[in-house]
Amino acid sequence: NSASKPPPTPSPLRFSKFFQSNMRILVTGGAGFIGSHLVDKLMENEKNEVIVVDNYFTGSKDNLKKWIGHPRFELIRHDVTEPLLIEVDQIYHLACPASPIFYKYNPVKTIKTNVIGTLNMLGLAKRVGARILLTSTSEVYGDPLVHPQDESYWGNVNPIGVRSCYDEGKRVAETLMFDYHRQHGIEIRIARIFNTYGPRMNIDDGRVVSNFIAQAIRNEPLTVQAPGTQTRSFCYVSDMVDGLIRLMEGENTGLSILGIQLINPDVKIAMVENTPDDPRQRKPDITKAKELLGWEPKIKLRDGLPLMEDDFRQRLGVPRKN
Ligand code: NAD
Ligand code: UDP
Ligand code: UDP
Questions:
Q1: Cβ neighbours, 10 Å, residue 185
Q2: Pocket of ligand 2 contains residue 202 by CB under 6 Å
Q3: 65: which residues sit within 8 A by CB, 6+ positions away?
Q4: Is residue 141 annotated as part of the catalytic site, yes or no?
């Protein structure tokens, strides 16, 4: 008889919500470059509890060392291609290698991370009613035929090339986000991130800013990939994190955001071969981010690069000459 049954146990999330207004935030890929800066910012708010999930493929515990042991912080070694059962209010889903060297290293794994990983995080968001933000990429535009790129552009992507595991993987991840939104009413946010730079980037991850800074510090020639006329827009990591938090907290679902000073005057330039499918020009149209989020980058390249140089010099053990 039902009268003798115990009352249903509230879920841990509802239970904790009943007593406190802390926001429990999951950051997948939180041990990586952008993720660890995002964690630093989220931890500044005393009402936030932050849980990082990472498999340490390109990230490291070192990036989070100041938070390990903190009562509002938790670090879990976990691969997002496996299901994850936890209780959270918000999910920042960043887990995925971002550098071409790493995402091409095991392309099948990159696709699994983007597709199965995003599916799992959406399943989690659906089960617990969490809002989820995906860090997509300007690579969804491929080698763009429209310049600059705004959110309405569908892109020009090679589906079978060596970058496709990443580009097409992120495109499917975006599709999954919108289908979970339409079919299950999940609250979603998508940021199409353009090239971001700053301290804690992997020194040898092969991207242009990290390569040039490391090469200048090591007194090696700067490797300009042919033809050398391709263009990018660079965003300093603190501006990126600010944009991601505004997007998560704001009311707009699907919108894309965001988008040398000489370190060594003697440095030489070496023209080297380029990689296949390298986009020739890329620049975000950030009108919508400005209008809807009040966001625009504040840190100029000339101010951001020295901060990254300091970090690289420290890690490479090469002090600045005065
Ligand atoms: P990163 O490589 O430093 O960080 C990615 C993190 O995800 C790492 O800590 C890595 O260990 C983790 N990870 C990878 N696969 C995983 C898996 N299967 N399970 C769990 N963890 C996994 O890269 P980043 O520059 O910090 O990029 C973060 C996000 O932003 C990525 O989704 C990337 O696609 C996106 N993005 C970055 C840029 C950029 O310029 N840095 C540009 C566009 C998009
Ligand atoms: N999932 C997860 N954590 C959860 C809920 C779901 O990792 O808390 C995974 C689940 O294993 C599944 C995916 O998310 O592979 C999609 O879940 P959903 O419930 O949407 O679909 P279904 O389980 O019906 O395929
Ligand atoms: N690039 C370069 N030298 C390098 C690394 C990259 O000239 O040592 C060029 C590359 O061909 C591309 C641009 O810099 O046109 C940006 O490349 P990166 O890998 O940093 O990022 P992408 O925007 O291609 O993801």
A1: 10
A2: no
A3: none
A4: no
Average pLDDT score over residue span 69-76: 97
CA distance 268 to 114: 38
Q: CA 168 to CA 157: how far, in whole Å? A: 8
Structure tokens given for 78: 């976990």
Q: Which amino acid, 159? A: P
Number of H helices, E strands in the chain: 9, 10
Question: What is the Å distance from ligand 1's center to 135 Cα?
Answer: 9
252-264 pLDDT per residue, tens: 654 443 433 345 5
pLDDT tens for 112-130 read 999 999 999 999 999 999 9
The residue ranges of DSSP E strands in 68-212, in sequence order, are 73-77, 90-93, 131-137, 188-193, 196-197
Tell the residue number behind the tokens 């994190």, with chain if given.
241
Q: What is the pTM of this model?
A: 0.89
* Amino acid sitting at position 123: G
The pair of three-digit structure tokens given for residue 83, joined into one six-digit string: 């299901």
Strands, E, within the chain: which ranges?
Answer: 23-28, 48-54, 73-77, 90-93, 131-137, 188-193, 196-197, 222-225, 235-236, 269-272
Instruction: State both tokens at 13.
Output: 């999330």
Residue pLDDT, tens place only, 183-224: 999 999 999 999 999 999 999 889 999 999 999 999 999 898
Residue 100 CB less than 6 A away from ligand 3: yes
